[in-house]
Design brief:
- The chain is 81% helix and 0% strand.
- With 402 residues, the protein is mainly alpha-helical.
- Helix 13 (247-274) packs antiparallel against helix 14 and helix 16 packs antiparallel against helix 17 (369-389).
- The chain is globular.
Length: 402
């Protein structure tokens, strides 16, 4: 490639990475709106802990399963089409949150709010197509910073509602999503030489489901990103109950957890470009297991519990970046979107289950220890599985397995 050819490509890659990251963050901001509101809704409606957990989990599971068709559609039609469509579709449930108040209506609204969570499956194939394999892990990690939209939700939702009126956060999010949809349609571009899918979304999904690596990556992402999602949506309730923190303090600490995980994600991608993604994942999962074990005994909030949660945030964020660095290296080029959709769905579903288990166990036992012990065991199993089974995967960039 000549210098005249390389420069426009580099400029186009950077522009599209920035646009994709912003779109991911805005859609995740919308996707996470119910998390910081859930404790107040529980008190207002007199819900059980299980009902509260279901309320915050519904958008997670819908956004997760929805990544499968959205990823396949992105392979077919491209991100320039899918990013505006996903963003506009998310505007409707966001506006509905400003008027609904009953539990059934909130569940239904949360179902459609899950559309925002599918934006992840639009951005990964876009970024993967614009960047070469040697830089792909870091680029996808930078894109993953968009999951910081959940931190924005925790920082702003309650504060905006208390200061400017309950409807303010929803009207603001709806407005920025609509504005982004217009900008994305005008400025976002799919890489001209990206591999284009030639078969139906169903056929592509069936094809990637036959690949062993798809399911291996699903398990790893369910633990890494699923763990992050679970804590980002359930940590406010956990801190209020276990440590009797006020609502604002719990939301602020959760936002700190999310911010650290967001920062760690591109670090995990960068480390995976420089070293083996498998090694990065083994260390991250093993460390998560240790921190979860400590937290199972509910140590004092300062400093021990704070250290354990921040440690888990950093390691889960880095592991999430490492998993998708591995996706960029081992997934077939014309199926990156479809593989991303399936793996992303597993990650979201991994975040759906723990809040329900935590709420159910607390209702039965009045303790979170069992749920945290389960997390520790699963993270340890992921570390062992990664070390034993993932080291010899064939790589799509032509380099030998490591």
């Amino acid at each position: 490639m000549t210098g005249s050819q390389a420069s426009p490509s580099a400029a186009g890659a950077t522009r599209n990475l920035v646009l994709a990251t912003v779109g991911f963050a805005l859609n995740f901001w919308a996707w996470a709106l119910l998390g910081p509101l859930a404790p107040g809704i529980k008190e207002r409606l007199g819900l059980s802990f299980t009902a509260q957990s279901l309320l915050v989990a519904v958008p997670v599971v819908v956004g997760s399963i929805g990544r499968i068709p959205v990823g396949a559609l992105t392979d077919r039609f491209g991100a320039r089409t899918m990013f505006p469509l996903v963003s506009l579709a998310t505007v409707v449930p966001v506006l509905a949150l400003s008027v609904v108040s009953s539990y059934p209506a909130l569940i239904i609204t949360g179902f459609f709010l899950g559309i925002g969570g599918t934006a992840f499956a639009v951005g990964v194939p876009l970024v993967s197509a614009w960047y070469p394999p040697a830089r792909r892990g870091f680029a996808i990690g930078v894109f993953g910073v968009g999951m910081g939209g959940t931190a924005i939700a925790n920082f702003t939702t309650i504060r905006l509602g208390d200061t400017y009126g309950e409807a303010t956060p929803f009207l603001l999010v709806a407005a920025v999503l609509a504005g982004y949809a217009v900008v994305a349609f005008l400025l976002l571009r799919d890489e001209p030489n990206r591999p284009r899918a030639t078969v139906s979304a169903w056929t592509r999904t069936a094809d990637v489901s036959r690949l062993a690596v798809t399911w291996q990556l699903c398990f790893l992402y369910a633990v890494s990103f699923g763990g992050f999602v679970a804590f980002s949506v359930y940590l406010p309730a956990y801190l209020r109950i276990a440590y009797e923190l006020p609502e604002h303090d719990a939301a602020l600490r959760t936002a700190g957890f999310v911010v650290l995980a967001v920062i760690a994600r591109p670090v995990g991608g960068w480390l995976s470009d420089r070293f083996q993604p498998v090694s990065v994942l083994v260390w991250c999962f093993a460390g998560t297991a240790g921190f979860a074990l400590v937290q199972a005994f509910q140590p004092p909030l300062m400093p021990v519990a704070t250290i354990t949660f921040l440690g888990m945030a950093a390691l889960l964020g880095a592991a999430s970046g490492g998993v998708f660095a591995l996706v960029g290296k081992v997934a077939p080029g014309d199926k990156v979107g479809t593989v991303t959709g399936v793996v992303g769905a597993a990650g979201g579903l991994g975040g759906f289950v723990p809040p329900l288990i935590m709420g159910w166990v607390f209702d039965l036992e009045g303790s979170y220890a069992i749920g945290l012990m389960l997390l520790s065991n699963i993270a340890l199993a992921a570390a062992v599985y990664t070390a034993v089974r993932m080291g010899g995967q064939p790589r799509q960039d032509g380099s030998p397995p490591r």
